[in-house]
Amino acid sequence: MRVMWGKNGRRRVTKPWRAAPKAALSSPLTLVVAAVTALLACFLGTAAVLQASAAGGATVQYQTGVTCPDSYGPAFGKGNMPVKDVPAVTGAIQRHAAAHGFGAPVVGQFTTVLPGTEFNGDPHYKIRLGYRDQAGLDNLTLQQGTRAPGLWLGNVVADAEHIGIGTRPSLQGVPLPQVTGIYRDLLDPPPRWWCSQQSGAVVDRLANDPIDSIVFATDRKTFDDTVKAIGLPTLQYFQVSFYEPAPTTLSAAEDLLQRSKDLVADVRADLTAQGLGSLIAADVPTFERSVQIARQARDNVFVSILPLALISVLVGCAGLGTVALQWYQRRHAQLRLLSARGSGPAALGGLAVAELGLPILLGGAAGAAAARLLLGVYGPPGAPDPAAELQAAGAAAGTLVVSLVLLALVVAVRVHREFELGRVRRGGRRVRWLAFFPWELATAGMAWLGWTRLARYGTASRLGNPLPQVDPLALTYPVFVVLTVGLLTARLAWLALHASHRARFWSRPALQLAIRRLAGARAPVTGVLVIGTLAIGTLATGIGIARGQEAALETKSAIFVGSNARLDTDSPIGMGKVAMPASLAGNSTVVGELTGTGSVVLVVDPATFARGAATDRIPGDDLAGLLEQISRPDPRGTPVIRVGHTAKQDAKLPDGLPDAVVAGDLPVFPMIGTSPGYVVSRTLFSHAQLDGVPKWSVLTTAPMAEATAALRAAGVFIPNRVSRESALDGLPFFVVSWTFSFVALLGAVLGVVAVLALLVAVEVRRRQNALAGALVLRMGMRPRTLLASHLMELGALSGLAIVVGVVCGVSVAGLSVPRFDPATFLAPRSELPDPLPFVLTVVVIGVAVVALAGWIAVRSVRTARTAELIRA
User: Fold this and answer.
1) CA distance 316 to 390
2) Which residues, including other chains, have CB under 8 Å from residue 317's CB and lie 6 or more apart?
3) What are the boundaries of each domain within the chain?
4) Which residues make Cβ contacts (< 8 Å) with residue 581, sequence separation at least 6?
5) Which of 84, 215, 318, 857 could make an S-S bridge to 790, C-beta 3.0–4.6 Å?
6) 4 or 719: whose pLDDT is higher?
7) Which positions, given as ranges, span the membrane (predicted)?
8) Are 729 and 585 in contact (CB under 8 A)?
9) pLDDT at 838
10) What helix, strand, coil percent values describe the chain, rounded to 5?
11) Is residue 482 within 8 Å of 812, Cβ to Cβ?
């Protein structure tokens, strides 16, 4: 406390606790370190909760993208629905829908096939009569006519048979409403609005569907009157559903699911009371399964990152404990005086909180806010739940409370031990014992345990269980390996610096001074080395595994499909009898497939294969040369590219082709994968041999819808088709990627800590460096040499951290990526992406940091006054 005099001449006592916030400004570096440490700790604690919740939201969005839009809520449907009971069912649904927050239901009704329908005197048409509420007509493209009451006929039959507006069809002598509109037929695949009605609303002409046209009634009265007139007792397809906005968060999806279940229960009870309980099959399983998967994805990510999040938060709290010790040393004289005047340990711990509490609170709040604002940058592409945001805020608040309590506790314990018990050296011995303890052995043991678990990771990813089972120890394996290497490197660096007094490089004074400065600050040097190595290694591991899984999904789907889309066709286009449509000619190729000898044989067109197939996923640089070689006849047999060669692979080819003569080997090939197979050129096939190829496929880089429309317009039969988007379930890959994106985030945060630690270490030694630098400049050293000495010192420290971190991180990621592959049954295995961009980025940042730190160190020398330094 200090004595001050007021305006009235009376003495006024000011306690240091009241002046603590202002007194903190005397050491801005301590304030900055405390604020930044709290910011990073709260950032990671908040980010862990938000990351897991956003993973659930991203999974919900992924599932809604692959689910029909009217399947998010309840669906009431039944096959062969009695026509007379339709009003009772729809009425019950309408009565209860609003009470559970649903809008107007959409009723879809489709009759059985009605053969013998007559148009323009021809009684051989087969139609299906359909109707759908609300926007049914809005989601059909009207080419001719109006929305007047009547029937809308598909354009394919109308154009081919010249059926115009005003035509009045009949069915076995019963007149039907007149045709008031011609709409464009719904093609397979239909627009998403019709997704759930595909079996009733779409004529699949690609599969030779015998139905000529789906005829839509323009309104429910027309549909009901027509069904009654022709005397149909049942409807083949009947469904009542709701078009609800797609949920974007897991909590919204769970709420929608619960409301759907409640509505189903009420409707079922209502119909049961009427004696009609068996009429409908109320259904919410599709989206219920989606919610379960989203919940599992959230829990998987949370369990996976929880150990790392706890470790990082504890490290942040330990950093604040270090700040408390620094503050204690700086305020030692004042604390001794206050203790002598009767202030207890708790009060002096409160003084530390009063002085540093505000920057810690501001830093923690900024960290929590940054974690929420930057979630879209580091986290999954989903929205977190409101409850999760509150939990994240609670985690940040809890971290701040623990930090402040730890700050007060550390100071209070030191005050109690030193001023009340007089025990100081014992603690110092304990710290030295902790420094000599072989922590790397403990972390190596954890890494080994994680490795044993990693071997079994993903084995449960089978049909019906789309997400791999989580083993947190397996997921912490990469981090513990990097930590072990970092600790071992720091241990060796400590020993080397301890023995550095033997170094004699006075012929190179810049190098000698750099070594002596490093040896004089062994503790900060090894601390920065551990943090820097862990940061770079963790960042390399997280980025490598996350991007490796994303690349694996793209590669596996591309190899499996063969290109962006694969459309199986009949022989005319394979034989060249039907030309490739003009819109596909520049980005498509035709591939034939032969089997029967144990090896898959692809018949490719060398001239077009590279522009239509996924050749960018084929390892090797001379695919064009290999395609050219197999196009040239060989008197020894059929020149082939051999794929996935095994000892059991037979050289025999099917259909009487000469035995294979290998022109080159490839480990993987589109459509074949890594299975044993051969690639032959169609230019060596005769017309009869081409005619014997049983299966032809069009590989194209064009979108599936565009390719389907073009081939359909050309009259090509397409029994099957697959695209990269639908070939694989990408969710298991995304979950692994989202998990390790948090590992990458942890590495980035540790990288910031390492940079700050390096700059702070330089700043803390400012006076020492300035004095030594000023003296050597007076002794004749050039400023350029002094700068080179500092760059050697800082460059050696940063360079060692970068080299060890990059080598360790990239190696661990390379070993881990294939083992985190959630689809090991599909070739090729996951591989580490090219690490060169990451390495270059780290090197550039490292050079910039070293240059900045060196400039700060030399600047302190140039701006210092030698006389004042010596007097100090």
Assistant:
1) 21
2) 41, 399, 402, 403, 406
3) 15-72+285-422, 103-243, 476-559+729-871, 564-723
4) 710, 711, 713, 714
5) 857
6) 719
7) 301-325, 346-370, 390-413, 433-454, 474-497, 518-540, 733-762, 791-816, 836-858
8) no
9) 92
10) 60, 15, 25
11) yes
- Looking at residue 612, its amino acid is G
Q: How confident is the model at residue 206 (pLDDT cuts 50, 70, 90)?
A: low
The share of the chain scoring above pLDDT 70, in percent, equals: 87
Residues in the chain: 872
pLDDT at 304: 83
Confidence class for position 19, pLDDT limits 50, 70, 90: low
| Residue 696 β-bridge partners | 569, 592
582: buried, middle or exposed (CB in 10 Å: 19+, 13-18, 0-12)? Answer: exposed
Which amino acid belongs to residue 214?
I
Measured CA angle at 40 (ends 35, 41), to 5 deg: 100
**pLDDT digit string, tens, across residues 646-669:** 877 878 887 678 888 888 888 889
Band (pLDDT 50/70/90 cuts) for residue 222 is very high
The angle at the Cα of 514, spanning 512 to 517, to the nearest 5 degrees, equals: 110
Question: What gap in Å lies between CA 312 and CA 307, rounded to an integer?
Answer: 9
Q: Which residue type does 816 have?
A: S
DSSP string, 418-468: IIII---HHHHHHHHHHHHS-HHHHHHHHHHHHHHHHTTTTTT-BTTB-SP
User: Which one, of 323, 356, 345, 354, lies nearest residue 418 by Cα?
Assistant: 345
The amino acid present at 675, given as its one-letter code, is S
Residue 142: the pLDDT is: 92
Distance, in Å, from the CA atom of 484 to the CA atom of 487, rounded to the nearest integer, reads 5
pLDDT of amino acid 102: 92
Are residues 26 and 358 in contact, defined by beta-carbon separation less than 8 angstroms? no
Cβ pair 805, 482 in contact under 8 A: yes
User: Which pLDDT value is given to residue 493?
Assistant: 83
* pLDDT 10s digits, 821-841: 887 777 787 888 889 999 999
Buried b (16+ CB within 10 A) or exposed e, 699-712: bbbbebeebbebbb
Q: With 50 as the cut, is the pLDDT of residue 336 above it?
A: yes
User: Taking a C-beta distance cutoff of 8 angstroms, is the pair 152, 137 a contact?
Assistant: yes
Distances (CA, A) of 222 to 108, 216, 238, 339, 401: 14, 10, 17, 95, 70
Percent of the chain with pLDDT over 90: 26
Q: Is the distance from CB of 47 to CB of 378 less than 8 angstroms?
A: yes
The answer to whether residues 176 and 226 touch, using CB atoms and an 8 Å cutoff, is yes
Instruction: Tell me the mean pLDDT in the region 711-740.
Output: 84
For the stretch 42-91, pLDDT in tens is: 999 999 999 999 999 999 999 998 888 988 889 888 888 999 989 999 99
The stretch 348-371 carries a mean pLDDT of 88
Q: How many CB atoms lie within 10 A of CB 565?
A: 27
Measured between alpha carbons, how far is residue 228 from residues 83, 84, 231, 815 in Å?
Answer: 9, 10, 5, 69
Quick check: bond before 703 cis, omega within 30? no
Q: Which of 6, 819, 871 is nearest to 477 (CA)?
A: 819
- DSSP for 322-378 reads HHHHHHHHHTHHHHHHHHHTT--HHHHHHHHHHHHHHHHHHHHHHHHHHHHHTHHHH
Residue ranges in 460-521 assigned as alpha helix (H):
472-498, 509-520
Residue 370 CA: distances (Å) to CA of 49, 248, 433: 14, 22, 38
Distance CA 837, CA 211 (A): 57
d(CA 337, CA 349): 14
DSSP, res 818: G
Other CB atoms within 10 Å distance of the CB of residue 864: 17
Separation of alpha carbons 230 and 854, rounded Å? 92
Spatial separation of the C-alpha atoms in residues 332 and 329, rounded to whole Å: 5
